Amino acid sequence: MKCDWQGVFPALMTEFTKDGALDLQATQKHIRSCMDAGVTGLVMLGTLGENPSLSQDEKEQVLKAAVEATEGKIPVLTGVAEYTTAFAIDFVKRAERAGVAGLMALPCMVYQQDSREAVNHFRTLAGATDLPIMIYNNPVAYKVDLSPEDFQDLADVDNIVAVKESSHDSRRITDMANVLGDRYTVFCGVDDLVLENLLFGAKGWVCGMVNSFPREAVKLFELGAAGKVKEAYELYKWFMPLLHLDVDVKLVQMIKLANQMTGEGSEYVRAPRLTLVGEERSRVEVVIRHALENRPNI
């Protein structure tokens, strides 16, 4: 399926049972809920999909279940987050077999690359597949920052088409435009910067909190993309305490708790992650309850 690189792409949760087994039916149910809200694509097996917590066979099962659930109506992308370039290429072959429409490629995990090594990784990965690729630039989490000039070095790689920009610096989108024009489609990758990013030229949003509040996330994107700043800002203010959860170290547990409280999924995670307890849990529950009590009528 062809991927139209714009709109809201949930970084979708992988659902588990209480004992840690894959719950593919629950994952598909959640996919359908997000589709009903108007999302335009899916990113499976990202950070929120707990990619490193799954075996290779389990990853392939999740991707097949997602492709089945979407019924060709929206594109399914997969995160590619492996330890080495060779391992990443091996996984991409599985993803192709599962029927995905594209990739969201991360730098290799564990080893902290410099930009030269990361550029080589992405170039080599792109050469091993015909699938279109979004590069996930997240120096906060992965300690390597690809500059606009680094992306210029990759501009000759035709199937690298988009960038998920998560540097936490809204100036980067303008810098990308000045150096690269419209060579890449830029997606916002930080929930609590989405309105700023949209106003500066982002065409899509790889979103975390859309998992729990899909209608509101889609509406916020639509208002921002249409330049309806006043309306968008009112919704953004309501949304912001929730969006802050997406940038916490425990974003997976926090957003899964939000999913459970909104009926979108369960809070079950795989160790070493543990569900939230004590003051931390209470603090997050207060944020979610306040949002639910003041939920806008959309």
Spatial extent as radius of gyration? 18 Å
Under the CATH scheme, the architecture is: Alpha-Beta Barrel
> How many alpha or pi helices?
12
- CATH fold-level name: TIM Barrel
Shape by Cα distribution: globular
As for the number of domains, it is 1
Widest sheet, order of strands: 1-8-7-6-5-4-3-2
The end-to-end distance, rounded to whole angstroms, is 30 Å
Question: What structural class results from the helix and strand content?
Answer: alpha/beta
Q: Helix and strand succession?
A: EHEHEHEHEHHEHEHEHHHH
Describe the protein's architecture and organization.
By secondary structure, this protein is an alpha/beta fold. It has a single domain, classed as TIM Barrel (Alpha-Beta Barrel), CATH 3.20.20. It is built from 12 helices and 8 strands. It has helices spanning 24-37, 56-70, 85-98, 115-127, 139-142, 148-153, 171-180, 194-199, 214-225, 229-243, 251-262, 278-293, and strands at residues 7-10, 42-44, 76-80, 102-105, 133-137, 160-165, 185-188, 204-207. Strands 1-8-7-6-5-4-3-2 form an 8-stranded parallel sheet. Helix 2 packs parallel to helix 3 and helix 11 (251-262) packs across helix 12. The chain is globular, with a radius of gyration of 18 Å.
